[in-house]
Amino acid sequence: MNSVNGAPAPRPRDTASRRPWALVVVGVCVVVATATLAIPAAVTYDAWAWLTWGREITRGALDTSVGPSWKPLPVMVTVLLPVTGGAAPVIWLVLTRVASLLVLVFAYRLAARFAGVAAGAVAVVLVLVTPDLDPRYLRLLLEGHSATVTALLMLAAIDFHLGRRRAVAFLMVLALALDRPEAWPFLLLYGAWLFRYEPRLRWLITVGTALVPALWFGVDWWGSGSPLHGADAAQVSATDDGRIGTAFMRVGQAVPEPAFLLSAVALVFAHRRRVRSLDAIAAITLAWFVLVVGMTALFGYAALSRFLLPAAVLVCVLAGIGTVWAWQAMATRVPAVLAAVALVLVFAPFVAVRAGGVPELLREAEHRQRLMDGLDTAIEAAGGRDAVVRCGRVAIDDRGSAAVALAYKLDLPMREIRPAVDGVPGVTFVTADSERYAYVTGKPAVSITGTTVAETPVWNVVESRCGRRG
Question: Which of its termini does the chain have fewer beta carbons within 10 Å around, N or C?
Answer without folding.
Answer: C
